[in-house]
Design brief:
By secondary structure, the chain is mainly alpha-helical. Among the domains are: 33 residues, no CATH class; 77 residues, no CATH class. Helices cover 72% and strands 0% of the residues. It has 13 helices and no strands.
């Protein structure tokens, strides 16, 4: 708070109301500064234009969490303003930029629940998908988030096929599928090393059937040749080798499969 005696000695003549207003503004500026707490930006009543501009300024300076808090204040203080709807979506983006993906998802889902037919709905769906996409972990971990990313990206493509968001979602969906196929291959290889041929073959078959356009498909076909031969069903191994030859004739995996078939199933043609 201002020291009244110092203010008077400096010839300031502020009314009690103006002192309170100035103190509130000073508190807001301090809170919004680099080390201030985000929650301190709340409860400062301001007109919608000023509040939205302050939020945008924070976002432009890379202070994403403070920006999100101020965009939330736009809606809280001015729920019936035309700016409120835009602030909801900007809050979701600000949380995303701050890598707070849970809050970003919640904000985007809330926007969609209130404004399902809004022109910005495609972006809200895309933002949700990106929140899941950014959280994809390596193949050694649980892939629940990866599956959520796949579903959300698929939703964007299905709902808004003609938008730029769908185009980007298709590219990312290819990467997600490759990631999921990689997880199946990791598990399949583990089963194979453990001598669990049937369990391994089921994983490799899943890659061939459901992720055939990924980079893992050639190896999956070769691993099927290996596991089928180990299971004593060379006819099935020959089928996988034939598919490998038809689709990846120049692959090292086909060369290896052909050698295996010639060595372990000489009476079965691999080509």
């Amino acid at each position: 708070m201002f020291d009244r005696s110092r203010a008077q000695s400096a010839s300031f003549r502020l009314s009690a109301t103006r002192v309170a207003t100035a103190a509130a503004a000073l508190a807001l500026l301090s809170a919004c500064a680099g080390g201030g707490k985000v929650k301190d930006t709340a409860y400062v009543a301001r007109d919608v234009d000023t509040l939205y501009a302050a939020a945008q300024a924070k976002l432009d300076r890379g202070q994403s969490k403070q920006a999100a808090a101020l965009f939330d204040e736009v809606e809280r203080q001015h729920p019936y303003s035309p700016w409120a709807r835009r602030a909801q979506l900007m809050s979701a983006f600000s949380y995303y930029a701050a890598a707070d993906y849970n809050k970003a998802t919640q904000a985007a889902e809330r926007f969609l629940s209130i404004h399902p037919g809004n022109k910005d709905a495609p972006y809200a769906y895309y933002l949700i998908a990106m929140c899941y996409y950014e959280q994809i972990s390596d193949v050694s971990r649980d892939q629940k988030i990866t599956l959520q990313a796949k579903q959300s990206l698929t939703d964007v493509i299905r709902r808004y096929p003609a938008t730029p968001y769908a185009s980007d979602a298709k590219l990312k969906l290819d990467l997600v599928n490759d990631h999921l196929a990689g997880k199946e291959m990791t598990i399949g290889r583990y089963y194979e090393r453990s001598g669990k041929w049937l369990a391994a073959s089921l994983r490799f078959r899943n890659v061939v059937d459901n992720y055939q356009t990924t980079s893992h498909a050639p190896e999956a076909l070769f691993r099927l040749v290996e596991t089928y031969l180990s299971l004593g069903v060379p006819e099935e191994a020959q089928k996988s080798a034939a598919v490998l030859e038809a689709n990846y004739p120049d692959s090292k995996w086909y060369d290896m499969a052909y050698d295996l078939m010639r060595k372990h199933a000489p009476n079965t043609t691999a080509t």
